[in-house]
């Protein structure tokens, strides 16, 4: 258990956009940032040394609804696709890069057969368990408009207060009992890697739905999910949203991890130090007395932890699966590289922000090495 680490500076979230595209960088002469524009496809370009799979032309629409005419931009060296775990496969599939049979069935001409595009979608399923307390502090910025206004004023004035921090103050990690892995493989990175994350918050369920009674909450996360989902196309229109199937809790291991996380949280809040303050589980999980009832609760409350990866996964050169090679180049193609969380073959045993930054920094070195 420790303090929750957050990328917050001066009361505001520090993101890739605010850092890598900050004012100093946005003003660079060799960088153009185009707003209100959408990439619709990556188009094939002239063949190189007999290779027909050259993708160095980007098709764009100069609006957000597809009513304007399309334009193209050609790269001299390569195109770097960084549209994210959902956007990257969405663009690739509309470009004819994916499973040829699935593309033909939809009416899209296939240009490069890569069946792994859009497959292997992996996210860390999350849910929560609430514990009733004896606190008489029923005020919450989520339920009290006056408190919210005061918190907003404080943030505007000093960049401090409840709006300057993440919902939970503490983070806990734990592993499942080794007895579970007598009959199944351990999906973690090793014996010192956790299976369960718990974000702990002492508020009116600040981590999830607001309640009228003061509670402490444990936001539970399955860090090593086995379930795999997909991103596919609904239509041939690039402006139509894709079909996203996160496939949460398809594998029983994932719901088992949430269940064991709830038991671990119960043990934590049953410690003597909480006596007289924490009363016990409240809410939907309060009446669950057997594992099957707990599993049903989690299947009904599971949500995203906003850590999706894997829809354009990396694999070894020559492998018959995957989308990019270890240099992040699209397999069997020239001129196209992918740099975002979609290239991660599996989700890391924690949060994905730092790993994505690491991937991007490594990609920058690879690109410089190739062209400078």
From TrEMBL:
Cellular-component GO terms for this entry: extracellular region
InterPro entries (alphabetical): FAD/NAD-bd_sf (IPR036188), GMC_OxRdtase (IPR012132), GMC_OxRdtase_N (IPR000172), GMC_OxRtase_C (IPR007867)
Domain Glucose-methanol-choline oxidoreductase C-terminal: 225-360
Pfam family, one: GMC_oxred_N
Molecular function as annotated in GO: flavin adenine dinucleotide binding; pyranose dehydrogenase (acceptor) activity
Catalytic activity: a pyranoside + acceptor = a pyranosid-3,4-diulose + reduced acceptor; pyranose + acceptor = pyranos-2,3-diulose + reduced acceptor; pyranose + acceptor = pyranos-3-ulose + reduced acceptor; a pyranoside + acceptor = a pyranosid-3-ulose + reduced acceptor
Residues in the signal sequence: none
Entry keyword annotation includes Magnesium: no
Location relative to the cell: Secreted
EC number: 1.1.99.29
Ranges where the Glucose-methanol-choline oxidoreductase N-terminal domain occurs: 8-125
Keywords: FAD, Flavoprotein, Glycoprotein, Oxidoreductase, Secreted, Signal
Coiled coil residues, start to end: none
Cofactor: FAD
Summary of subunit composition and partner proteins: Monomer.
PANTHER family given in the database record: GLUCOSE-METHANOL-CHOLINE GMC OXIDOREDUCTASE, GLUCOSE-METHANOL-CHOLINE OXIDOREDUCTASE N-TERMINAL DOMAIN-CONTAINING PROTEIN
Family the entry assigns: Belongs to the GMC oxidoreductase family.
Function according to Swiss-Prot or TrEMBL: Catalyzes the single-oxidation or sequential double oxidation reaction of carbohydrates primarily at carbon-2 and/or carbon-3 with the concomitant reduction of the flavin. Accepts only a narrow range of electron acceptors such as substituted benzoquinones and complexed metal ions and reacts extremely slowly with O(2) as acceptor.
Protein name listed in UniProt: pyranose dehydrogenase (acceptor)
């Amino acid at each position: 258990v420790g303090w929750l680490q957050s990328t917050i500076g001066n009361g505001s979230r520090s993101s890739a956009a605010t850092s890598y595209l900050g004012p100093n960088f946005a003003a660079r002469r060799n960088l153009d940032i185009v707003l209100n524009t959408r990439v619709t496809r990556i188009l094939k370009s002239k063949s190189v040394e007999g290779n027909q799979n050259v993708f160095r032309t980007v098709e764009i629409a100069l609006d957000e609804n597809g009513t304007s005419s399309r334009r193209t931009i050609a790269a001299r060296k390569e195109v770097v696709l960084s549209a994210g775990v959902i956007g990257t496969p969405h663009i690739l599939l509309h470009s004819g890069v994916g499973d040829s049979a699935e593309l033909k069935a939809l009416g899209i001409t296939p240009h490069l057969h890569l069946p792994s595009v859009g497959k292997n979608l992996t996210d860390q399923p999350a849910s929560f368990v609430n514990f009733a307390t004896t606190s008489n502090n029923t005020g919450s910025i989520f339920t009290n408009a006056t408190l919210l206004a005061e918190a907003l004023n404080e943030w505007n004035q000093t960049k401090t207060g409840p709006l300057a921090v993440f919902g939970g103050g503490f983070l806990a990690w734990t592993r499942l009992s080794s007895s579970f892995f007598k009959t199944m493989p351990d999906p973690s990175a090793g014996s010192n890697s956790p299976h369960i994350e718990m974000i702990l918050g002492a508020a009116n369920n600040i981590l999830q739905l607001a309640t009228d009674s003061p509670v402490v909450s444990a936001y539970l996360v399955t860090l090593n999910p086995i379930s795999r989902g997909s991103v596919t196309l609904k239509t041939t229109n690039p402006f139509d949203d894709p079909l996203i199937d996160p496939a949460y809790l398809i594998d029983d291991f994932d719901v088992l991890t949430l269940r064991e996380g709830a038991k671990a949280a119960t043990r934590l809040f049953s410690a003597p130090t909480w006596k007289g303050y924490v009363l016990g589980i409240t809410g939907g999980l309060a009446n669950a007395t057997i594992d099957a009832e707990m599993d049903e609760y989690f299947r009904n409350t599971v949500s995203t932890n906003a850590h999706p990866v894997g829809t354009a996964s990396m694999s070894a050169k020559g492998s018959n699966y995957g989308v990019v090679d270890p240099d992040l180049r699209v397999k069997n193609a020239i001129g196209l590289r992918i740099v975002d969380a979609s290239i991660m073959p599996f989700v890391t045993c924690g949060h994905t922000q730092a790993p994505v930054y690491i991937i991007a920094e490594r990609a920058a070195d690879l690109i410089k090495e190739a062209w400078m």
